[in-house]
Write a structure and sequence with these properties.
2 copies of one chain form a homodimer. Chain A is built from 19 helices and 15 strands. Chain A is of the alpha/beta class. Chain A has a domain of 250 residues: 3-Layer(aba) Sandwich (Rossmann fold). In chain A, the strands form 4 sheets. In chain A, strands 1-4-5-15-10-11-14 form a 7-stranded mixed beta sheet, sandwiched between helices. A 4-stranded parallel beta sheet of chain A has the order 8-7-6-9, sandwiched between helices. In chain A, helix 4 crosses helix 16 and helix 5 runs parallel beside helix 6. The radius of gyration of chain A is 20 Å and the shape is globular. Chain A starts with a strand and ends in a 7-residue tail after the last helix. Chains A and B meet through helix 8, helix 16 and helix 18 of A and helix 8, helix 16 and helix 18 of B.
Chain lengths: 446, 446
């Protein structure tokens, strides 16, 4: 069977919170001023209480509201698909399955959390959301979700992606959002950066600062983040929960799960629903793939750091390359982030997730092979997971594994990046090991 | 239930040939020289016998080869989806369902026939296919299919689409095809046109001539057409056959089926599997929607005409605006064709299909509303079917119908057209009734 489908009635009705299951837990966010754990009240200026409760929850299961389920049903459950044509092309006996999150309206897994976030904001009377976007996938997802729940939406889009991916703007326009390149002249922080770095490609860290400043300065506006935070990871567990049910249907179980890592939400979302099994002794590997140009998990420091450049966020305990690190303008814009989800960071620290880094060119090559064999053109971020899956599938041809990877999004709006790859314009970038001291010299002292 | 799915095992294993069921049949193609019916032997220079047998078949059912089924399983059966969010936005009690053909690798229904055509060519030892493409959907589909069956692929892409939709080229490149803007300097006919009309936007009729010239001039090459011909319609009946099974699953039946009409394959493909029921007295309407700028069915002549500008094809009995008519550069490139499938033409002539024309701007408006409510951004061609479905759903609010339309393809690679719509750059074009005499003055005399 090529595609393993679930009925709508089989879609999970609860999100899974893995934090109670992580052996040493996840350290709380700290208030940058007091260095004390930060309670929900201080965060309530930018997030609705419904999401903050999830962020700090110690319950393993969180009900998915009916209104959210209804919107998710537009495309969920998403199919689990056997990449048997890719297997043949690789000459491997390994079985490769992928969870196809590219079927969502905006084309990626991001929509899963966007719908939930828009819902809780609407429920608490918020009128407008401000956010940032890297490759544009989160911005598109939130634009769609805001339209569904009748909220205004303002998107600060990292300059390099704004220029590389013009169709993302058209998509956000279609959903009625307002989009501006970041750094912009519309925030104090954006103007500062433009003054000191007029030609900057921008970064997620800068765009987050701008969106936070926007949300902090308007009564009617709150902020939404597309990855990193606990509640976002919880929302994305629907991917792994569905995949688990789909594997049960065919009487199989994955030996390895692969996800690409930017802020960590798609990787954690597909992996953590299998975590309890692993902790109970089941043999299963989790592999997180990141770009060698922005190697947060493989070369970063595990420390408290800010989530943004302007130091507006709480301090998060995570792997980081330093909050003022600006990664090279690689085409997987969604992976250009200095930090990493505290949940995923904790799982890496406890050796429950194995991080690995790959280069841009081998990823596009993997993406092209996937498109030619399985038909679907992957997003550059997703190409990283495909590259990871190919490595696992060809590592030892005498020991074929069952591999599951998260096909986080399609690349229909990233084709200009493929053009650059085909014409030989792209290059690899490696973050030098010795640069980590310089990059993290401004880490806050706890 | 939002999405009605079928298992792979429920995918039809036969295509339906509706010709034996059409009351007065479909007139055969004529040899332009002798004006006599054209046998397969003369067409064998450009088509493989496997497809010619289907083209001329009098059997109602044609087995789908296992090798074709296997590739179709990559995305088929496609979902039938209830557009309940659109219904709500329209304030109608009508039920609107759509068959989502945008889930195919290249993003449209075209892949259904592309896979079949590539298979039969490969089976007969062909090494290379030449084809034309309007909006790029057929070209992408055939590029993908050729890669699956290890054939070379050369695509003549209508100039206006080539310029409007650069990402289509990237997609065809990804699948390993060679693409050139038509008219091109690579064929004798292309050079002629460029000489007389150096600034032409091109047309499907011109691009067909170039691809035919290419195929006719090389031993290793045959030609593939993405619509119009009988065998293409047969391949597309898989859409309607699946839809019928899906309606049976939920115990419903459509009152109206709507499709957009360029060459006729997606409309006929979803409609004709319901034709026998209609002929046996079941109350069901078929509505074919075409652009007012290229109103083949609503203002054309029903006559024998060439399928291309250079008069290389056999004479087809169909509705036509004249083989040398070059439609305005509207953004639904796939609907810019002077002729219409002989099967669909016969169904219109016999009042079994009702044709109707709509304008570009109302179609984009319908497409935006669909995207905002159902999430998925439609191709400009598909916007015509959506506009048609909206007209049916709001025609009489006291008599709510069950409407099925063919969502022929997504618009991820057409977003620049939406940008032009949003910025007010697009306009409507109406083909003046009185121009039909001039347009068809060169119709061959039979």
């Amino acid at each position: 069977m090529k595609k393993i489908q679930l009925e709508e009635s089989e879609m999970p009705t609860q999100w899974y919170n893995c934090i109670p299951d992580i052996p040493n837990g996840v350290k709380p966010p700290l208030d940058p001023e007091t260095k004390e754990p930060m309670g929900p009240e201080k965060l309530a200026a930018v997030f609705p209480m419904g999401l903050l409760e999830q962020e700090m929850s110690d319950q393993s299961w969180i009900d998915i509201p009916k209104e959210v389920q209804e919107v998710l049903h537009i495309w969920r459950p998403s199919p689990l698909i056997r990449a048997d044509n890719l297997e043949k092309a690789l000459g491997t006996k390994a079985k490769i399955y992928f969870k196809h999150e590219g079927v969502s309206p905006s084309g990626s897994h991001k929509t899963n959390s966007a719908v939930a976030q828009a819902y809780y904001n609407k429920r608490e009377g918020v009128k407008r959301l401000a956010t940032e976007t890297g490759a544009g996938q989160w911005g598109s997802a939130l634009s769609f979700a805001c339209h569904k729940f009748d909220l205004e939406c303002k998107v600060y889009m990292v300059r390099v992606s704004y220029d590389q991916k013009p169709y993302r703007k058209s998509m956000m326009n279609t959903y009625g959002a307002e989009i501006i390149a970041s750094p912009s002249n519309e925030t104090e922080f954006g103007r500062q950066i433009l003054k000191s770095h007029p030609d900057t490609a921008g970064s997620l860290g800068i765009a987050i600062s701008e969106a936070l400043e926007d949300a902090g300065s308007r009564e009617d506006t709150k902020y939404a983040l597309g990855s990193v935070l606990n509640h976002v990871i919880h929302h994305q567990t629907i991917i792994g929960l569905e995949a688990k049910a789909q594997f049960e249907k065919i009487g199989e179980y994955p030996d390895v799960i692969v996800g690409c890592c930017g802020g960590g939400s798609n990787a954690a979302g597909i992996m953590v629903p299998f975590l309890r099994d692993k902790l109970e002794g089941k043999k299963i590997e989790f592999v997180g793939i990141e770009p060698a140009s922005c190697p947060t998990l493989t070369k970063g420091k595990y420390a408290y750091d800010f989530g943004d450049v302007a130091q507006l966020t709480p301090l998060l305990y995570m792997y980081t390359l330093g909050h003022d690190f600006i990664p090279p303008g690689i085409h997987a814009g969604g992976l250009r982030y200095h930090g990493m989800s505290p949940i995923l960071s904790a799982l890496v620290r406890e050796n429950l997730v194995t991080p690995s880094s790959v280069h841009q060119l081998e990823c596009f090559e993997a993406g092209r092979l996937f498109a030619q064999t399985e038909g679907i053109i992957p997003a550059p971020e997703t190409c990283h997971a495909i590259r990871g899956a190919i490595i696992e599938a060809t590592r030892d041809l005498n020991d074929p594994k069952t591999i599951l990877f998260n096909f986080s999004g399609h690349g229909m709006l990233d084709l200009s990046s493929y053009d650059k790859f085909y014409s030989g314009e792209l290059q690899n970038y490696e973050f030098p090991e010795e640069d980590i001291a310089e990059a993290t010299k401004n880490l806050p002292v706890i």
